[in-house]
Design a protein that fits this description.
Blueprint (H helix, E strand, L loop, with lengths): L1 H7 L4 E3 L2 H10 L7 E3 L21 E4 L7 H5 L7 E4 L13 E4 L2 E2 L2 E2 L2 H10 L2 E4 L10 H9 L4 E4 L17 E3 L4 H13 L1 H18 L2 H17 L2
Parallel strand pairs: 1-2, 3-4, 3-8, 4-5, 8-9, 9-10
Antiparallel strand pairs: 6-7
């Protein structure tokens, strides 16, 4: 009731994903005409591949959102190195020799965007394990990794924000949420098939260039501004 009352006083509400928007409108009795999608985009000139697309420095996972489900990645039945960069407390998970957790630095360097880009580029693949929520979590990491030409293994959550764009097995691999075995199979598939890994990385970059640039954020911002001006 408190959320409904708070939202009722707003002129407009925007969401990052269609699933989240639909769910919120239903839960909080929102007028759909007062809502819109504001689609995220990234700087494709900065987030870009290097000359070694088949780097194999294990699997990288990044993010401190509470919707991350690192347990399914830690428990995935694989021997590949898994590097997790997060401020979340993962002490309650079992220790495995192939899993390393980084909180504030990478090889002695503070994790800036430059360092993070290098980490993407050096990885075999990027994993984005998520709880099955409506919130479009994992957005920025997924787009940054794809723009760097890296295969992404992404949980196919209820709030997946660009369902029409993601093509599992082509520009990413979508995995059932909460399934460690499926994450393990996806990692092994990319490890064992160099041709697929390279093709998926190329397709990921092409998708990012076509869909995920800053232009769509600019268009979304213009639409919000124009909408506000029309009400004056």
């Amino acid at each position: 009731r408190l959320i409904r009352k708070s939202l009722s006083g707003l002129d407009h509400i925007f969401f990052f994903g269609p699933g989240d928007r639909e769910r919120a409108c239903d839960m909080y009795s929102l007028d759909v005409s007062k809502t819109s999608l504001f689609q995220f985009g990234i700087d494709l000139e900065f987030w870009c591949p290097n000359d070694h697309p088949l780097a194999s420095d294990g699997v990288l996972a990044v993010g401190s959102d509470s919707k991350r489900d690192y347990g399914i990645l830690i428990n995935a039945p694989v021997s590949e190195n898994i590097n997790i960069v997060t401020s979340l407390n993962l002490e309650h998970f079992p220790r495995r020799e192939n899993v390393k957790i980084f909180k504030g630095s990478w090889e002695g360097a503070r994790i800036t965007d430059l360092v993070l880009r290098d980490m993407y580029r050096r990885s075999m693949a990027v994993a984005v394990p998520l709880l099955n929520v409506w919130q479009p979590s994992g957005y920025s990491v997924t787009l940054q990794a794809m723009a760097c030409g890296k295969p992404v293994i992404l949980s196919d959550i209820k709030g997946l924000w660009d369902r029409d764009v993601f093509r599992s097995g082509v520009n990413c691999i979508l995995v059932k949420p909460g399934d460690s075995q499926a994450f393990g199979r996806a990692i092994s598939r990319l490890r064992d098939d160099e041709v697929l890994r390279e093709a998926m990385g190329v397709a990921a970059r092409e998708t990012a260039t076509k869909v995920f640039g800053l232009h769509r954020m600019e268009a979304g911002l213009r639409a919000l501004v124009d909408m506000d001006l029309d009400t004056l």
